[in-house]
């Protein structure tokens, strides 16, 4: 790529089978490194007609369903070709997408025609997303449609956590992968978002994670009243009760 001056925006289209998480991780640069580039957000497109077939396809043990992974990582999801399906079929696609990713913003399109302001400048990875995280947090937890499927798990817990205990909680999940579900299978977190209360900070802190990368960012928003930590996990083999218990035990007594 050669161009004088700065780019306004870089849109990177991956191949159909790509894992967007791996690509996103490369661009998710630490703000302190002073890079001009920041990761704005991940947009995925599914075809209304074939989405269910692809999303619900069971892959052999150990293999991931790429379509479901792309939905899991998306900040915005276009359900395209809505003219080719009935209202009921569209509703089914929407509900499966929602069960995989409880945070994603869904847009329904024909010929992928979309208002650009809805897919650019998302700020999905920075502290500006606090408001939207709060708004979205009302989403309920997904019920699993398949045992091995990707789901969204959310919970809220009052309290404070120390910096160290929060890092330990996240690292056990993302790095050590030693947090297991009730069947003894390690939980696999693909995307993580949270609003947390650190014991030594007045402001709300946002946690973001993609694959094994994660980041804590202090926001400008001060806590008011009781501090309610909100966590969202998207991944496989997740168990809400165990995750919540673990987070609770990380909180300061
Ligand atoms: N009926 C209908 N057809 C569409 C729509 N959007 C795209 N198509 C048609 O679908 C065909 C395939 O286009 P796409 O599915 O967009 O193909 P693509 O995503 O570029 O293909 P890959 O990158 O290989 O996945 C083309 O003939 C398009 O004109 C739509 O909303 N409705």
From TrEMBL:
<dbReference type="InterPro" id="IPR011629">
    <property type="entry name" value="CobW-like_C"/>
</dbReference>
<feature type="domain" description="CobW C-terminal">
    <location>
        <begin position="150"/>
        <end position="251"/>
    </location>
</feature>
<dbReference type="InterPro" id="IPR027417">
    <property type="entry name" value="P-loop_NTPase"/>
</dbReference>
<keyword id="KW-0143">Chaperone</keyword>
<dbReference type="InterPro" id="IPR003495">
    <property type="entry name" value="CobW/HypB/UreG_nucleotide-bd"/>
</dbReference>
<dbReference type="GO" id="GO:0005737">
    <property type="term" value="C:cytoplasm"/>
</dbReference>
<dbReference type="Pfam" id="PF02492">
    <property type="entry name" value="cobW"/>
</dbReference>
<protein>
    <recommendedName>
        <fullName>CobW C-terminal domain-containing protein</fullName>
    </recommendedName>
</protein>
<dbReference type="InterPro" id="IPR051316">
    <property type="entry name" value="Zinc-reg_GTPase_activator"/>
</dbReference>
<dbReference type="GO" id="GO:0016787">
    <property type="term" value="F:hydrolase activity"/>
</dbReference>
<keyword id="KW-0342">GTP-binding</keyword>
<comment type="similarity">
    <text>Belongs to the SIMIBI class G3E GTPase family. ZNG1 subfamily.</text>
</comment>
<keyword id="KW-0862">Zinc</keyword>
<keyword id="KW-0378">Hydrolase</keyword>
<dbReference type="InterPro" id="IPR036627">
    <property type="entry name" value="CobW-likC_sf"/>
</dbReference>
<dbReference type="GO" id="GO:0005525">
    <property type="term" value="F:GTP binding"/>
</dbReference>
<dbReference type="Pfam" id="PF07683">
    <property type="entry name" value="CobW_C"/>
</dbReference>
<keyword id="KW-0547">Nucleotide-binding</keyword>
């Amino acid at each position: 790529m050669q161009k004088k001056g700065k780019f306004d925006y870089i849109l990177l289209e991956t191949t159909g089978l790509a894992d967007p998480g791996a690509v996103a991780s490369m661009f998710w640069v630490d703000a302190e490194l002073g890079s001009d580039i920041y990761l704005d957000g991940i947009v995925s497109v599914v075809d209304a007609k074939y989405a269910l077939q692809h999303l619900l396809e069971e892959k052999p043990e150990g293999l991931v369903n790429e379509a479901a992974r792309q939905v899991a990582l998306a900040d915005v999801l276009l359900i395209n070709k809505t003219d080719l399906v009935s209202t009921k079929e569209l509703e089914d696609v929407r509900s499966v997408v929602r069960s995989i990713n409880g945070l994603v913003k869904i847009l329904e399109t024909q010929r992928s025609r979309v208002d650009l302001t809805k897919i650019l400048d998302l700020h999905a990875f920075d502290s500006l997303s606090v408001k939207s995280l709060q708004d979205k947090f009302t989403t309920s937890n997904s019920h699993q449609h398949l045992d091995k499927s990707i789901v969204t798990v959310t919970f809220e817990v009052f309290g404070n956590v120390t910096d160290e205990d929060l890092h330990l909680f996240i690292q056990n999940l993302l790095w050590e992968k030693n947090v297991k579900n009730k069947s003894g299978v390690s939980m696999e977190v693909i995307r993580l978002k949270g609003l947390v209360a650190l014991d030594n900070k007045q402001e709300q802190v946002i946690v973001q994670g993609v694959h094994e990368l994660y980041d804590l960012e202090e926001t400008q928003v001060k806590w008011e009243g009781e501090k309610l930590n909100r966590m969202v996990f998207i991944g496989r083999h997740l168990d809400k009760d165990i995750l919540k218990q673990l987070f609770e035990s990380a909180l300061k007594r």
